[in-house]
């Protein structure tokens, strides 16, 4: 499992999940710590983690110590709140709580990206924009949010 961003120079930055949990370990192997890095651009310092990496201090501390100013948090699937068919690892209530705590600890706005749930969260852990599972992609095909990034690219760790 992994994530990718396109750097300002056009090259891809790809990172693999540091330590896949449970059944994922039978398919994917560990990533490397050197992939836990913030991408500095002229306007913002991007940080990315996926899924339950947001609850492991060995991963969150390394990212937050690099002074990210916008974080992308990805989960594979997140159904709506109180979904009785959701597995514990899919629960919106748990995954969103992890993301909001991360935003507060990093003091950085966060993009929550998941199948069936996408949102922008501010640095205080509060929702700015939400698209949930019951929303049709024809009704809302893309989620937008503006951030004032003045000076964020010059933040130093």
Automatic annotation (TrEMBL):
PROSITE patterns: CN_HYDROLASE
Chain coiled-coil ranges: none
InterPro entries: C-N_Hydrolase, C-N_Hydrolase_sf
Domain CN hydrolase: 1-149
Transmembrane region(s): none
Protein name: CN hydrolase domain-containing protein
Species: Ascochyta lentis
